Amino acid sequence: RSLVDAWCPVDQYTGGAEHAVMHLLYSRFFTKALRDLGLIGESEPFTRLFNQGQILGSDGERMSKSRGNVQDPDELVNRHGADAVRLFLMFMGPWDQGGPWSSSGISGIVRFLGRAWTLALDPTGREPGDPESGKLPAGEDAAAAELSVRRAAHRAIAGVGADMEAFRFNTAVAKLMELANALFRYRGSEIAGGAAWSEAIGMLLRALAPMAPHLAEEMHARIQATSGVGDGSADWRSIHALPWPTVDDALITESSRELPVQVNGKLRDKLTVSATATEAEIEALALASDKVKIALEGRPVKKVIHAGGRLVNIVG
Asked: How far is CA 180 from the centre of its chain?
């Protein structure tokens, strides 16, 4: 019983909804019977249940040999690689919904993996034919750019971690795509390959590892090799042995936000306000706006509506 108490109940059961009258029914019956006999202390076999959706044939019907709509993934694996197919299946849609099979979107996944490879292994390269490639975004110096890169990485990892826990695999992949796009803005710039960049790439690869294990391991190994840590070295570590990245809460908290200001329901201005600004402070800034004053045309303000921190509407 000590072993059962140590290992049970199972923390996660994943299966189709049809198992409610099969596996789930049997497991609950036996668990309760064993409990009543005093052999175990648990009343339920699982603490969490998740029903996954089902990938159907391209005709929208359940796959079967008799229908002739069975899809063999081997062709896609041979063409694009196992990681691309695995990632594509995760990205197809909400995992609990499923839907008809279509391979038309896998090219986007292949492009994303190619971009991740380029970011990890050729950070100082520049896009041919792009005169802006290698330049920092307008208004950013190196310090601001490094902060932007770190913010993008930490926010992405916070979101990916939450999505993975909730089985929102499609949105987890989307967040990594957004991170790759954000990093590409700085590829070839003076911060590429620096400390902030390396931190961001490390976080990207560790988050990608459960989804695209082979490519993530290969990129990680090549980065280690450039640092003199080759396969077989005492310091070499598989990416799959590394912990999940630690998120710095200070980097994912917005210090300011943009707030639309309407006058009688029409957008007249946008204000940048502190994330902790009170309604009174926001109202004072809005009423001091020259654009708002022009829109009011001297009319007195009847009321100011604060729409849940999303916008301000001045009625006059």
From this structure: 11
Question: What does the DSSP assignment read for 116-184?
Answer: HHHHHH-TT---TT-TTTTPPPTT--HHHHHHHHHHHHHHHHHHHHHHHHTT-HHHHHHHHHHHHHHHH
Domains plus CATH for the chain? 2-51 (no CATH), 106-251 (1.10.730.10), 256-315 (3.10.20.590)
Q: Would you call 46 helix, strand, or coil by DSSP?
A: strand
| CA-based R_g, the chain, Å | 26
**Whether this model's pTM surpasses 0.85:** no
Work out the angle at residue 285's Cα, subtended by the Cα atoms of residues 284 and 289, and round it to the nearest 5 degrees.
115
Three-class SS state of 257: strand
The SS3 call for residue 275 is: coil
Structure letter (DSSP) for residue 52: -
Give the rounded distance of the alpha carbon of 4 from its chain centre.
36
Contacts (Cβ under 8 Å, ≥6 apart) of 291 = 261, 268, 269
Pairing of strands 49-51, 54-56: unpaired
Measuring CA to CA, which residue among 191, 161, 166 is closest to residue 176?
A: 161
DSSP state of 299: P
Q: Tell me phi and psi for residue 23, to 5 degrees.
A: -55, -45
What confidence tens digit (pLDDT) does each residue in 21-36 have? 788 889 999 999 999 9
Compute the distance between CA of residue 263 and CA of residue 293 in angstroms, rounded to an integer.
9
177: Cα within 13 Å, side-chain hemisphere: 14
The helix (H) or strand (E) run that includes residue 305 is: strand 303-306
* Token digits of residue 150: 């770190």
- Per-residue model confidence as pLDDT tens digits over 126-171: 777 777 777 888 888 999 999 999 999 999 999 999 999 999 999 9
**Which is nearest to 288 in space by CA: 306, 255, 314, 308?**
314
Total length of the chain: 316
Query: Quick check: 113 and 215 in contact, CB under 8 A?
Result: yes
